[in-house]
Amino acid sequence: MRTISADQQRLIDDAIGELSLALSPAILEKDILVTEALRAISKIALPGLTLTFSGGTCLAKAYQLVERMSEDIDLRLVIDNQDSLSRSALRRTLSELKSAFAESFRTAQFGLPNERIRARNENHFISFDLTYMPRYPPDAALRPEVRVEFMAIPPRRPTQILTFPPLIDKLTQRTTAASVTLACLSIEETFCEKIISYLRRATEHLAGRDNSQYEDRLARHVYDVHQIVTLHYQRSHAPLPSELFTEILAGDVAQYGNRIIGFPADPTGVLRQTLEAVSREPEFRKHYDRFASELVYGDHRPTFDEAFATFRGSAEVLLGRQ
Question: Which CA distances in Å does 307 have to 203, 228, 229, 263?
Answer without folding.
Answer: 19, 11, 10, 26
